[in-house]
Amino acid sequence: MDLKLQSLTPLSLSGSRAQPAGREDLRQAAEGFESLFLTQLLKAGRAGLPGGDLLGSSGVDTARDMLDMELAKSSAGRAGLGIADAIERQFAPLVRDGKS
Q1: pLDDT value at 37 more than 60
Q2: CA torsion 14→36→86→25, rounded to 10°?
Q3: Which of 75, 78, 7, 6 is nearest to 41 (CA)?
Q4: Which Pfam family, giving just one, matches this sequence (predicted)?
Q5: Other C-beta atoms within 10 Å of 45: how many?
Q6: Which of 48, 49, 41 minimizes the C-alpha distance to 68?
C-alpha cells in the first residue's frame, strides 16, 4: 500500500470547491471530536454495568446507543471537559479567520 503525505493545508469541503477552513469550522470539528470521545466514554461505562436488561433486544441496544450519541453531541463543548478547547487552541494557528 502506497501512502502519500499531503501538505497540512486545512480545507473545508463546503460548496463546489475546497475552501480554507475558518475558526467556525475548527470549533465545529473540535466539538465533534469531543462528542466522539464522550460517546465512547458512555459506551464503555454501560459495558461495565453488571448483567443485561430485561428485554435484551437489539432495538433496546440501538435506542440506547442513539441516546448516548445525542447526549454526547449536546454535551460537547459545554461539559467542561476542555477537550474541544484544547483542540481549538492547538490547531488555531493553522486556520484563517475566515474574513479573507
Answers
A1: yes
A2: 10
A3: 75
A4: Rod-binding
A5: 10
A6: 41
Residue 67 or residue 1, greater confidence = 67
Has residue 14 got a pLDDT over 80? no
- 4-10 average pLDDT score: 44
pLDDT at 16 over 90: no
Domain ranges across the chain: 24-45+57-93
Amino acid at 47: A
Which amino acid appears at position 54 of this protein? L
Position with higher pLDDT, 15 vs 33: 33
Distance, C-alpha 80 to centroid of its chain: 15
CA distances from 30 to 26, 35, 66, 88 (A): 6, 9, 21, 6
CA dist., res. 99 & res. 20, Å (int):
11
